[in-house]
Here is the input.
Amino acid sequence: MSEVIQLLQQFDDPRDPKKVSHPLPTILFMSICAIFCGAEGWEDIVLWAEAQKSWLENHIDLSKGIPSYSTIRRTFMIISPESWGSLIRDVVVSSRANHEAEDQVPIDGKTLCASKCDSKGVRAIQMVSAWSVKNNIILGEVKTDSKSNEIKAIPLLLELLNLQGATVSIDAMGCNEVIISKILDQGAHYLIGLKKNQPKLYEAVEQHMEKIGASPDNLVEDYFDDSHGRCVRRRYFAVDVPEEIKPLGFCIATTRIPYFSRQILNHQS
Here is the structure.
């Protein structure tokens, strides 16, 4: 716990010193603990802190009492989301003695439920997040202005992460030269989805894989999945990138083309 307190004490306080009653580490510590325990709003944080006051007093300064929900809300309104996300990652890493180096990091965009308000003209909040498969934690998140801006948000998210040696996987929205360059600059590998938003490259890859890709010589994984009420055979193939395909896209650094095949064998009752 002392490591977490030290991290919070190093966090820059953006508030006006003349108007401060509660130390910033106090607000941050009780908020982080409450959120990890399931708090979903400012009132939840206060209720949790009131229930755990005797325990909190052993770690933080509560001489001014527990901050009100409005004080907590105002504090978080002036803390940048990027700084908060970075702090949460540091807290999680410092509190996990068995934290391992990242191996696989999927990146995905999602819409936050109940974040849209038509009457006030508020759009739904779009988030792009990176997940650690090895450690089962979110490594970072970046808010976007709209679904179409995920391509701009992903490079910002990549800059926040330590991806040395990891494999970053993204769906077709990551099929972008800037994003791939960012991943390579981090010393990471990538697995990017390819769809018809890159028509020439997609057509060339599709024809190549249909011709020689799905053959036993290129099979790297073959297994059966009998979950979800059905039996499915999943096969993965990988082939070297032919020279004639490279000029059609931005796969100069790509050495292999993966190909996925799924065959539903039967539905279970």
Summary: The chain has a mean pLDDT of 82. Strands lie at 104-111, 126-132, 137-144, 167-170, 189-192, 219-225, 230-240, 256-267.
